[in-house]
């Protein structure tokens, strides 16, 4: 029974009013309106709100009592509450806190200030993890026991009732026993419970419920060299076998009492008293407690159910791709209830994908186990991670949601003896270029550009071509006067020669008659072009 949010709000209203012995619901309007003074026995609509809305809208000239459900107590039980119109004012709330059908004023709540870790509090057969914020309404009973029955001895009352903000008894204490104190003399003996056949469970008050027909060994831990302890019992039903354990590792410190094939008449107190006067007691209640048969409706659940007798356990598993919603292990408790409701197997679902980067495009989201989400980025951007994430069996995506990062090309390298003439796009401060930028190269004088003069930054972050290179060349040196050179080209490659032929009547100047100008690797001519002179001058 889960309280709806509305009831929680009502609980707030109730809890706020619950500190006074006869709490009165404030209603300022009632005191201020003149009509109210005339008809003093009527009340104005009560100022109770639920999620911002008025709880009741009715003709309050005739209504004298308002009933509503309040979520009362640490389990948030729905209890019928009411407020009452008396002499023009609302009084209450009064709630059916106990199960006697009567409305009781909500007196002060109780709580536990600091609960020692060994103490276990049970309220309405449900064990409660208490903190100082959990409040228990006036009039309810809680049961307190030591978590490890037999390892601690409870000193004090195990049933506490909340009486107008005060517990009926001081909080009991758990005294550690011999096995926890290294067999110190003052410690009561540890009582160990073994149930080799049958089943048992600890009750909210710390008593041991035993299923009829079980075999129970109670072992009193005491140092044998200090003497023999004594087992006593309150049941008049039969005598029990007692004595030191047989096995070598136990016979010096375990004094045992055995109950074979327990019957309801075996119920009672079993006390081990040591020769030095310390004692510890366990209360045994032999009763056939069954829990309701567990119905496993969910087809995905794999259940291993030991049985439905008190002390039996059931464990549950889910197949891959499903997660267990609830508790995997259940115990049939001495109260006849399973420790928790059977769990469900719910299909794994990965969280929805909320990209932080607005440029990221999320395509095809399948949040089921084995499903996939695919990402893409707009033109000029690339993903910072893989383009897919898979939904894993643990309900998580296989990685982080990527982002979109602008694509850049590395700084272009001008070739030796060349340079960048112009760029169609702005270089970044580190020299890189964004997608679509173009860079044009040129070569120094007497060099020829080979390859693509213009390169473009592509979407993949590479330039469209490798940069060109600059090849040295010699330019046409020009014909000498009265002669010509051969071969005639615009440009000559390194290693090319030219030969001068003079027009008729002219000869190459003798001094240079044998010269053959050669294009040098740096693009210059090895020598001047010979000149032609009138042969009469030779
Ligand atoms: C327990 O007591 C025995 C003797 O009484 C001593 O030898 C041993 O050291 C003690 N152990 C611890 C853990 O205190
Ligand atoms: C598990 O079940 C409870 C109700 O039993 C529900 O409130 C809770 O939201 C569920 N958890 C998930 C993750 O579905
Ligand atoms: C549930 O019980 C099984 C054995 O039945 C055990 O292996 C597992 O650890 C237990 N799980 C929890 C959460 O206690
Ligand atoms: C608690 O369990 C006992 C049986 O041990 C039963 O008699 C009682 O009615 C239960 N109380 C509640 C509130 O369930
Ligand atoms: C999601 O993925 C799962 C596992 O691959 C598949 O079985 C399911 O049909 C997918 N759902 C949709 C709506 O495509």
TrEMBL record:
* CDD domains for the chain: CCP
- The membrane spanning regions, by residue number, are none
Signal sequence segment:
1-20
Q: Where is the Ig-like domain?
A: 189-283
Family matches, as Gene3D superfamilies: Complement Module, domain 1, Immunoglobulins
Show where the Sushi domain sits: 108-176, 289-347, 348-406, 407-472, 473-534
Disulfide linkages recorded for this protein, renumbered to the chain, are 318-345, 377-404, 443-470
Please indicate if the UniProt record lists rRNA-binding as a keyword.
no
Q: Which InterPro entries match?
A: Ig-like_dom, Ig-like_dom_sf, Ig-like_fold, SEZ6_CSMD_C4BPB_Regulators, Sushi/SCR/CCP_sf, Sushi_SCR_CCP_dom
Keywords per UniProt: Disulfide bond, Repeat, Signal, Sushi
Protein name, entry field: Locomotion-related protein Hikaru genki
* Organism in which the protein naturally occurs: Cloeon dipterum
């Amino acid at each position: 029974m889960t309280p709806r949010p509305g009831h929680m709000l009502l609980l707030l209203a109730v809890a706020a009013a619950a500190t006074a012995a006869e709490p009165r619901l404030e209603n300022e309007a009632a005191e201020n309106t003149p009509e109210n003074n005339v008809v003093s026995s009527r009340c104005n609509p009560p100022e109770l709100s639920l999620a911002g809305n008025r709880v009741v809208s009715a003709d309050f000239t005739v209504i004298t009592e308002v009933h509503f459900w309040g979520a009362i107590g640490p389990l948030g039980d729905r209890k019928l509450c009411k407020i009452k119109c008396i002499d023009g004012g609302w009084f209450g709330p009064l709630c059916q806190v106990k199960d006697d059908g009567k409305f009781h004023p909500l007196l002060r709540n109780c709580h536990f200030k600091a609960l020692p870790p060994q103490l276990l509090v049970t309220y309405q057969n449900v064990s409660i993890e208490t903190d100082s914020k959990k409040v228990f309404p006036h009039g309810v009973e809680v049961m307190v026991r030591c978590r490890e029955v037999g390892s601690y001895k409870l000193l004090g009352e195990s049933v506490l009732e909340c009486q107008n903000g005060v517990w009926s008894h001081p909080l009991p204490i758990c005294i550690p026993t011999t096995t926890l104190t290294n067999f110190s003399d003052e410690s009561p003996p540890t009582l160990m419970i073994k149930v080799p056949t049958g089943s048992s469970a600890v009750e909210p008050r710390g008593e041991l419920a035993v299923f009829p027909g079980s075999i129970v060994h109670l072992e009193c831990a005491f140092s044998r060299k200090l003497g023999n302890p004594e087992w006593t019992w309150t049941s008049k039903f039969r005598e029990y076998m007692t004595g030191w354990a047989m096995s070598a590792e136990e016979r010096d410190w375990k004094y045992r009492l055995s109950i074979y094939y327990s019957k309801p008449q075996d119920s009672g107190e079993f006390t081990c008293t040591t020769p030095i006067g310390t004692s510890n007691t366990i209360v045994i209640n032999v009763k056939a407690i069954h829990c309701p048969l567990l119905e496993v409706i969910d087809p995905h659940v794999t259940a291993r159910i030991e049985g439905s007798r008190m002390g039996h356990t059931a464990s549950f598993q889910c197949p891959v791709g499903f997660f267990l919603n609830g508790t995997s292990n259940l115990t049939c408790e001495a109260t006849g209830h399973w420790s928790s409701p059977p769990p469900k197997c719910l299909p794994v679902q990965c969280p929805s994908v909320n990209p932080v980067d607005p440029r990221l495009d999320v395509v095809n989201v399948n949040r089921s186990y084995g499903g996939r989400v695919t990402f893409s980025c707009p033109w000029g951007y690339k993903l910072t991670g893989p383009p897919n994430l898979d939904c894993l069996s643990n309900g998580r995506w296989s990685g982080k949601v990527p982002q979109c990062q602008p694509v850049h090309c590395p700084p272009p390298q001008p070739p030796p003896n060349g340079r960048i003439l112009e760029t169609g796009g702005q270089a970044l401060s580190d020299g890189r270029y964004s997608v679509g930028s173009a860079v044009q190269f040129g070569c120094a004088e007497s060099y020829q550009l080979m390859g693509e003069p213009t390169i473009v930054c592509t979407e993949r972050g590479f330039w469209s071509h490798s940069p060109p290179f600059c090849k040295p060349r010699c330019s046409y040196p020009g014909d000498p006067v009265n002669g010509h050179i051969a071969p005639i080209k615009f440009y000559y490659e390194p290693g090319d020669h030219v030969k001068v032929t003079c027009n008729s009547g002219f000869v190459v100047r003798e001094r240079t008659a044998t010269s053959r100008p050669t294009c040098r690797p740096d693009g210059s001519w090895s020598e001047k072009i010979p000149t032609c002179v009138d042969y009469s001058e030779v």
